[in-house]
Specification:
Helix content: 10-25%
Number of strands: 16
Shape: globular
Distance between the termini: 9 Å
Low-confidence stretches: none
Number of helices: 7
Largest sheet: 7 strands, mixed
C-alpha cells in the first residue's frame, strides 16, 4: 500500500511531490504522481500558441529550481512544459502519464480510517492519503442564456482557442471579464476582426501594484469563501485586471469597452441587457473554469453552499484528503506554498496513523 497518491502534475502537485521526497518518502515506492496529460506542463501545455510568456500571468518558481529568464516572446506552453519536464528529471519525480483518475473512494465505506482507492484507467492504487492537485483546466465553464442553442454562428470556449485566424472575416463577441477576454479582444482587433465585448459587470481595471501584499489580500479573500464552504470566485473577481499601457490604449480605442450583460441570443445576433444588439456570427466564451473534482464525488465533500469546506489545504470532512489547486491555490500565486503545506500535513498525518499490516 502507498503512503500517498498525488493526483495532478501541475505546479501544486509537483510542489507537493518535491516536499514529500524531501521529507523521506521515496517516489514510486511510498508515493506516486498521476497526471492525465501526455507530457509535462500541466494546464500550461494546452495554452494557445499566441499566449507568450510575456503576456501570461506570472509563472512562479517551483521549489528548489528557478525558472530563470526565458524568452518572453516564446509561447508560455513551450516554456512551462520544458521547465516542468526538467524539474521532474532533476529531482527524480517520475510521473505516471497519461493516467485518467476516474474516482477516489474509501476501501471500506463503513470505516472512516480505511485506506482510499484511487481508480484509474491504468489500474487501482490503494493509499493512506491523497493529495489532489487537479486544478481547473478540464472543467471549462459555459454560461447559459435564452436562445443559445438556436444561435447559428460558431461558439468556442477559451479551453479550445488556438488562433485568431479561426475568426477571420467574422463578427466576434467575446464574453468574460478576465484577462484572457481582454487579450483575445486585442489580438482579434489587431488582426482586423470586428469585435464586441460583453461582461455582466463593469470591467474591474486596477492600477494597484501586484506586490506580495496584494497577493496576500487575494488569498485572504478567496480563503474566506472556501472556509465557509462556498465555491471560489474567479481570479479576476479577487484581483481585478491590471491597467497596463496596452490595455489603456484598448480602452481609448474603443476595443475594451463592455456592452454589458447578455439578455438573450437570436439566430444571428446577441441582445444585451440594455436592449441593444450586436450582429454576431461567432462567440468566444472567455468565461473561466471550475474546479475539476468530479472524481472526488464518492467522498461526498460538497457543502450546502456548493463548495468544499476548507482549512488551508485540509478538508475537515475527509482527513485522508489534502486539496491543492483549489481556491487560493488554483492560481500560480499560491500553488507552490499549498504544495508544501500539503506535504507537511501529509507527513504529520502519516506519522499519526497506524502502520498498515504487511
Amino acid at each position: 500500500m502507498l503512503d500517498a497518491v498525488v493526483i495532478g502534475a501541475g505546479q501544486s502537485g509537483l510542489s507537493a511531490a518535491y516536499y514529500l521526497a524531501q521529507r523521506g518518502l521515496e517516489p514510486e515506492r511510498d508515493f506516486v504522481v498521476l497526471d492525465v496529460n501526455a507530457g509535462p506542463g500541466g494546464a500550461w501545455r494546452h495554452r494557445w500558441p499566441s499566449l507568450t510568456l510575456g503576456a501570461a500571468h506570472a509563472v512562479h518558481d517551483l521549489p528548489g529550481m528557478k525558472l530563470g529568464e526565458p524568452d518572453r516572446h516564446e509561447p508560455a506552453s513551450a516554456v512551462v512544459s520544458r521547465y516542468y519536464g526538467g524539474y521532474e528529471d532533476t529531482f527524480g519525480l517520475p510521473v505516471q502519464r497519461p493516467v485518467k483518475v476516474r474516482a477516489v473512494r474509501p476501501l471500506d465505506p463503513d470505516d472512516g480510517e480505511s485506506a482510499l482507492v484511487v481508480e484509474t484507467d491504468a489500474g487501482d492504487f490503494e493509499t493512506r492519503l491523497v493529495i489532489n492537485g487537479t486544478g481547473t483546466w478540464d472543467k471549462p465553464y459555459w454560461p447559459h442564456y435564452p436562445g443559445q442553442q438556436g444561435f447559428a454562428g460558431m461558439q468556442l470556449h477559451t479551453h479550445d482557442f488556438r488562433s485568431v485566424a479561426d475568426f477571420a472575416g467574422r463578427r466576434v463577441l467575446v464574453v468574460g471579464a478576465g484577462t484572457s477576454a481582454v487579450q483575445f479582444l486585442l489580438q482579434l482587433a489587431a488582426a482586423g476582426v470586428d469585435t464586441a465585448w460583453s461582461t455582466r459587470r463593469v470591467p474591474e481595471f486596477t492600477t494597484r501594484v501586484f506586490d506580495p501584499e496584494w497577493g496576500r489580500d487575494v488569498e485572504r479573500s478567496v480563503n474566506e469563501r472556501t472556509a465557509a464552504g462556498l465555491p471560489p470566485l474567479s481570479v479576476v473577481a479577487a484581483t481585478g485586471i491590471p491597467l497596463i499601457e496596452e490595455y489603456q490604449r484598448g480602452i481609448d480605442g474603443g476595443v475594451l469597452v463592455s456592452r454589458g450583460g447578455i439578455d438573450h441570443l437570436d439566430v444571428d445576433k446577441v441582445v444585451f441587457a440594455d436592449g441593444t444588439s450586436y450582429d454576431a456570427d461567432a462567440i468566444l466564451w472567455a468565461t473561466g473554469f471550475r474546479a475539476s473534482l468530479d472524481h472526488l464525488a464518492p467522498l461526498k465533500l460538497r457543502e450546502a453552499g456548493g463548495g468544499i469546506l476548507m482549512d488551508g489545504v485540509k478538508v475537515p470532512k475527509e482527513p485522508r484528503l489534502l486539496l491543492v489547486g483549489y481556491g487560493a491555490s488554483a492560481s500560480t500565486l499560491g500553488a507552490t506554498r499549498a504544495g508544501r503545506a500539503a506535504a507537511v500535513e501529509a507527513m504529520r498525518r502519516l506519522a499519526a496513523m497506524p502502520q498498515p499490516v504487511a
